[in-house]
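Posting this for the archive.
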Amino acid sequence: MNLYNKTGKMALGSRLRLLTSRITEDAVRIYELYDADFSPKWFPVFFALWENGETTITAIADEIGHSQPSVTTIIKEMAVAGLVENGIKSNDKRKNIAGLTEKGRALANRMINVQCKDVDMAIDGMIAETTHNLWEAIAEWEFLLDKKSLFKRVEQQKKIRESLEVEIVAYEPQYAAAFKSLNEEWISTYFEMEEADHRTLDHPQEYILDKGGKIFVALYNNEAVGACALIKLNDNEYDFEMAKMAVSPGAQGKSIGSLLGNAVINAALQMGAKNVYLESNTLLKPAINLYHKLGFKKIAGKSTPYKRCDIQMVLDLGKKNK
């Protein structure tokens, strides 16, 4: 067990498999103790048949959380042992019905009334000796895993850790090529480059920075993997536009879009802006979801220089401050 103290929780699955193996080995001996020619893996299917009577493979699989092929295999094994009758006739010929034989029912009565009571008492005794109730803990873990799998939880932690390694910096001339290529990549993938794209990406200093805007660059391992611009608008209705947000496909999943979006919004707040406007396309579902999370709301009616634009959104910075 010292190994698992060294590995930590990374070896949770291995440790549980070891515990399962130890309990299964004891279960085999327990069945022998009660003169039951029975495999421990049969028990969930066997119990379901004892409790529910004749039923379908599908119903058993749904109740015990096993796959249908797994249940089918166990049914066949128990049929060979004479405990289960398979292929019982039903009104619906498409359904495969299984039920306990007379031998199976006799074993079930003996097992439930004698063996299970002894096992329950033994386990209750172990629970009384422990600080934590394993049976209740298993139920809690099953509930939590139903809500979110361990994979999803690890994936979330990976995303959080990697996002902390992302640095958002102000634009410098050395990032000009990255700012252009990152945007050209996603635009060319989904749409086509337009005149307004070329003008802004070829001359960011002239068309963004010199007019009172800002550009932010996301660095990961000292490499520019994302960018976003805050463009000053000569507009009586909107103060700034969030535009040219791009994240390298190889760096996605690190919350870079969210980090860039928040950097742009904070910059707008610092410059006293009342709102931030943006244009996008509903084909870009991850981007639209991000904008909603940042607080942007859909609007309509503003003219746009982009053919690809089919959605316009605005963030009310007054509400953002409340």
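Strands lie at 55-56, 84-88, 97-100, 166-170, 214-220, 223-232, 240-247, 275-280, 297-299, 311-316. The longest strand covers residues 223-232.
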